[in-house]
Write a structure and sequence with these properties.
By secondary structure, this protein is α+β, with helices and mostly antiparallel strands. It has 2 domains: about 150 residues, OB fold (Dihydrolipoamide Acetyltransferase, E2P); about 260 residues, BirA Bifunctional Protein, domain 2 (2-Layer Sandwich). It contains 16 helices and 19 strands. The N terminus is likely disordered.
Length: about 500
């Protein structure tokens, strides 16, 4: 233990010494009137990838690039360095004959991590590496801290998430994940807009926590002197727009839920919700397949992917099975033959399923048995449909069995990716379900919905038959980038402060 503490002290001392040296270099540059922080602008003509992609056209021609020094090899009067920009790295050959003695001396003083601009002609080295023969090197920003691999590397996941800027510098594959995330978001929007959906914006600050079953974050509005909630869903606002005459709407944005954190959950997350008048949950299944399969094709070049070692085929069409039939398929129990809460309780006991004491109706028990026994078996894409009404307060009932609703959830790799309804548009039924949710909340269920009387009022003006869906973007990005944790696909995940 003492030896480890001594090593850590030595490393810290080395770090402090190197930072002191870098600050001294900066001070010297400033004394000479060459303060890099005074530079306002730098006109670059190409990125590293531009040069590589267009080598035949650019060979022998001058280009100007800029980036962070990632490596240097000083060989007397000539040197090589690699600089890194957003698209990757490129090598540069730098010599005293081209730069002159003073400029070359300054270049040799530049540190790993400094940001420089290089102007020179494009060529290929004897080893075949596309490079830039520098004619001019400009220091654009001084790195006052050495990059972490000089000391302990940046493999510590907690540190990587806290210092994402450093993670992006030293782990190029991380940047690739977030570039793929951008591509996935664009493709989701492309599919929706091709089908006539329009993008809208709804409030993040709400006076009622509604649209989903979740515990909200509470804040206070000083001027109005009222408590408000960060939205847990944007569903009820989007449905108001359907009522108002917009036939197809969607919104992609942040949601906030004051709940647990694990590899699948972050308190703030990105969701896309979309609603279409005159459609139902079967239409939502179809568009789900198209959105996810097209996103996979866009970023992976195939719909047959591997996630954490498991092969998953995202090629449409996907399995569709009711919740009750899925339970029967796995456990042999047919809930079509179980009528009462007492019978359902006995089934749960026989299956050794631990139940929430606040959720003991037949429908709630069906849902809990599904979660405990079936979810883990759903590896290939599967739509589980027809949920109990008790766990779906915003969904249209099935005419042939009013204990069930026209709802589905999409599971891939034993995780939920989407949730969709044939939306409830009966204001009388909606009001009664809100009342039941309020009673549940008063009994201690912090995730139950609040009463939203304005939404009921809106429905009383008439809401067309509507299909609606929400897809978790972060989990979709995890799937399509083979990322194990939601923190790997969030640039700045929620972290407990280091005190």
């Amino acid at each position: 233990m003492e030896e480890n503490q001594n090593n850590m002290q030595e490393q810290e001392l080395d770090l402090n010494q190197l930072m002191k040296i870098r600050r001294e270099k900066l001070a010297k540059l400033q004394e000479e009137g060459k303060d890099p922080f005074q530079i306002r602008k730098f006109n670059r003509t190409h990125t590293s990838q531009d040069v590589k992609d267009n080598f035949e056209e650019l060979e022998g021609k001058d280009v100007t690039v800029a980036g962070r020094i990632m490596s240097k090899r000083i060989m007397g009067k000539a040197s090589f360095c690699h600089i890194q920009d957003m698209q990757g790295q490129i090598q540069s050959y730098v010599s005293i004959n081209d730069l002159g003695e003073e400029s070359y001396k300054h270049f040799k003083e530049d540190d790993i991590g400094d940001i420089i601009g290089i102007t020179g002609f494009v060529f290929k080295t004897k080893t075949g590496e596309i490079s830039i023969h520098a004619k001019e090197v400009t220091l654009l920003s001084k790195s006052l801290r050495p990059l972490p691999e000089k000391f302990h590397g940046l493999k510590d996941t907690d540190l990587r998430y806290r210092q994402r800027y450093m993670d992006l510098i030293v782990n190029p594959e991380v940047k690739d994940t977030f570039q793929k995330r951008i591509t996935i978001l664009k493709e989701v929007k492309n599919v929706l807009e091709e089908k006539g959906y329009i993008e809208v914006e709804t409030p993040i600050l709400n006076t009622i926590a509604g649209g989903a079953s979740a515990r909200p974050f509470i804040t206070h509005h000083n001027t109005l002197d009222i408590d408000m909630y960060l939205r847990i869903a944007n569903e009820l606002y989007l449905k108001r727009l359907i009522i108002g005459g917009f036939d197809k709407v969607y919104e992609m944005g942040r949601m906030f839920r004051n709940e647990g954190m694990d590899i699948k959950h972050n308190p703030e997350f990105t969701n896309v919700e979309f609603y279409a008048a005159y459609q139902d949950y079967h239409d939502m299944m179809d568009i789900s397949e198209e959105i996810i399969s097209r996103a996979a094709q866009k970023v992976q070049g195939t719909t047959k992917i591997t996630y954490q070692g498991t092969e998953i085929d995202l090629t449409p069409s996907w399995k569709r099975i009711s919740m009750i039939d899925s339970i029967k398929e796995v456990t042999g129990v047919d809930f079509n033959e179980i009528e009462t809460d007492e019978q359902a309780l006995k089934v749960a006991k026989d299956l050794n399923v631990e139940l929430d004491e606040l959720k003991l109706t037949r429908g709630e028990i069906i849902n809990q048995i599904f979660e405990a026994r079936v979810e883990e078996t759903l590896i290939q894409p599967t739509f589980i449909y027809d949920y109990p009404v008790e766990v779906s307060p915003l969904t249209k009932r099935k005419p042939e069995d009013p204990r069930l609703v026209e709802r589905f959830e999409l599971f891939i790799g034993a995780r939920e990716y989407a949730n969709a309804y044939s939306e409830l548009n009966d204001p009388i039924d909606q009001y009664e379900r809100f009342k039941a949710q309020v009673a549940q909340k008063e009994a201690g269920d912090e995730e139950a919905n609040d009463m939203d009387e304005d939404f009921v009022t809106a429905m009383e003006y008439g809401m067309p038959p509507t299909g609606g869906e929400g897809i978790g973007i972060d989990r979709l990005v995890m799937l399509l980038t083979d990322s194990a944790s939601i923190r790997d696909v969030l640039l700045f995940p929620t972290m407990k402060p280091n005190n």
